[in-house]
């Protein structure tokens, strides 16, 4: 694996473990059980490359995407975007700016792509909401 500076996105050893409910016996013994939703995901994406996460339902694809965008906190791991440590970003405005540069495409298109709207309307909506394009720019 090359350094995080060579990749647009570098993910190293990313983990997200969710603690399950403990039985009274486990509480007394101070034992916890975890669901390992994401367990050691590592990959890099370089300029000109495309990555698709494929797997069965419940295999951690959406959780991985949410971890990368910091929508949920990781249990462990590292995420670098253009050499910047994403997990170290503290400022809310900086985090919002980072998220504007990435996009998750969820697996159920019917939930996110309204059959009542034209494709142009669907694509224009986030551009309007983020202030990246005006109504006039989008209608031309």
Ordered list of secondary-structure elements with their pairings:
Layout: E1 9-19, H1 24-28, E2 34-45, H2 61-68, E3 76-81, E4 84-85, H3 92-100, H4 109-112, H5 119-129, H6 135-139
Antiparallel strand pairs: 1-2, 1-3, 3-4
Structure overview:
The protein is an alpha+beta fold and 140 residues long. The chain has helices at 24-28, 61-68, 92-100, 109-112, 119-129, 135-139, and strands at 9-19, 34-45, 76-81, 84-85. A four-stranded antiparallel beta sheet has the order 2-1-3-4. 11% of the residues are buried.
| Total DSSP E strands | 4
Query: What Rg is obtained from the alpha carbons, in whole angstroms?
Result: 19 Å
Helix and strand run: EHEHEEHHHH
Portion of residues within helices: 25-40%
State the shape.
globular
Give the low-pLDDT segments: none
Structural class: alpha+beta
User: What is the chains' assembly state?
Assistant: single chain
Distance between the termini: 44 Å
For the largest sheet, list the strands in their spatial order. 2-1-3-4
Indicate the proportion of strand residues.
Answer: 15-25%
- What does the main sheet amount to? 4 strands, antiparallel
The average pLDDT is 84
Please work out how many helical segments DSSP would assign.
6
